[in-house]
Amino acid sequence: DENAPQIYCGLVSVIGILILAINIARLRRKKDIMFLLLIIFSIVPIFSKRFDLLLHFGQEPISFPFRYSFVICFFCIIAASCGLNFSFEHKYLKAGAAVASVIFLTETAFNAVGAFNYNERHWFNYDNDADFQLYIDEMKNATESINDTGFYRVEKDFMRNINDQMQFGYYGMTHYSSMYNKNLIDLMARTGFLTTIHYHTYAGQTPLTDLLFGVRYLIDSDDEYFLSQTCKNFCLVKSYYTDKYELVESGKYIDIFKNKNAVDFAFWSADNILGIKTSSLEGNSFESLNAIFSGIYGNQVFPYVKQDISEKYANFYEVEISEDGLMFISAAPSTPEYHSVYINGQYMTDGYIPMFGQTFRNIYCGRFKKGDTVTIEIESAEVIPVENIHCYIESEQIYNAIAESFSENSVSYQEQKNLSFSVETSRAGLLITEIPYDSGWNVSCDGKKIDSENVLGVFLGVRVPQGNHKLVFNYENDGLKQGIIISVLSAGICLIDWVLLKNKKFIHKNSEGG
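^ thats the sequence. predicted structure below, dont judge the formating
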């Protein structure tokens, strides 16, 4: 279990703790007893979910719930050292304790080196300084060249790290935090993105998901040297449809494209979208997207058209395209592990990526016209039933209509101050912003607070009444005030304790002098 706590800190530590525990009745030092109590207190949450939630302030983490296991190891090592020091008091154990101390330090060092080598060999495969610096320099140049003061997201079709956006300071969709909003990961998984239970990536995007999530800029690279040297251990998520975006910057290794149809800040929607719950988006990612866009427009819209697949032989299929557009495939969750995907004999991508494990993201297959015949070959050790392969065309005609509608119904903010945005509008209806939904966001209409809407568990929406109005979106951290109060009280208690202790020492000193 990847979420199991890692608390192994060496056999010598166990021996030291046992020595300390066996002699607990003979100990006079309070700190030794305190270390044992700390170990017990830190281990209890492993077996009790309630105590685990207590350590996380009531919010269940997405992954690594025992992230504090290193604290347990620290307490164990300190307690073990106390036990070994205690054994020094016995003349027959002095030599053994000295040897044990040397073994303790040696074992700890070997454990650290072994853990580093394992991670380097199986996960990270660290690059040399030149490759690392090349990536930093090129990404900084790319992100700094995007001179846009609007509200938008940036993504890229290559990935070195799942937290690239935090390193380079751009707003994107790819982001990892173990305390992150599960709703976003859930929605992206159901709409075909490459996800795990911990985080999501941009792989699996389509032109319509770019519109939905407000991706305005795409950072692209075709340079084999740059990709092989800087992203070799992570995934390439080539979009293959940069022709839908305008080239705004061309560099030696990186190009930047702009999605002219991306939402500025918010867009108008039918109320039907509020009736869609993420949990109801079952079946496959393309039908989920059809349901979402139907909810936005208030009537049945099917931008993704299902294609009939015929099975020629095991893991080899044929499709006759029903209309012009981009072809995507994905597999049902019950599909066996599969690897390389070939379209018309040409390699496209790997369905299985070791970094993420078994995945069922949207896989782009190319642009085709009505009447084209396309073959799909999937490498797998097991036979994949034809009904487990979902093949859809993102209709060129319907995409253009939706993109034009998004552009026309896009709403920009007039003023921004820190985490506050103001919008002036004379239109009534449901306004959906690209702001991630959070209870800390407050919305006011002409100075009066109004309720916000949680759209798909992800987007912040608001119902705008008839007339001319000024909307203000303002964010306040729910826990900020409580945190300040707790910090001030804690500092006050420490100050009072220090003053009392100082006075006690002063009185004791004077009494001895008297």
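The longest strand covers residues 373-380.
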